[in-house]
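Suppose you are handed a protein chain with no further information: no name, no annotation, nothing but its sequence. What can you learn? This example shows the usual starting point.
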Amino acid sequence: MENTVKVNIAGVEYALKTDESEEMTRQLAKEINQKINEVKAGNPYISTSQIAILIALEYGCSCKKAEANTEKLRAEMKDYLEDAANAQSERDFYKREIDRMKAEAKSRTNQINLFDDNE
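A reasonable first move is to predict its three-dimensional structure. Written in structure tokens, the prediction is:
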């Protein structure tokens, strides 16, 4: 669902068409304004377009790091799921082995009882 959200960034009003919520869009615009003001406070001679490029690079870098972290977490999760599947398979094997040994023990107990009845 596409929304049109009006925001003001660095004194310029924008009508943004977005699939994101109005609240999220406004929050992002607020964060960008804060970053613009921080950079301007540190260097009043820098242009708004230069600030925009710096902020875009910062966000791009953060995005790339987040993507790399996401891929790392996916790989770890895949490993954990494989380990869990292997553990479950091993558990099932040992469960069957215990059942087999119980049946074998019961069979031997029955054989011993047959010999005891003969005496």
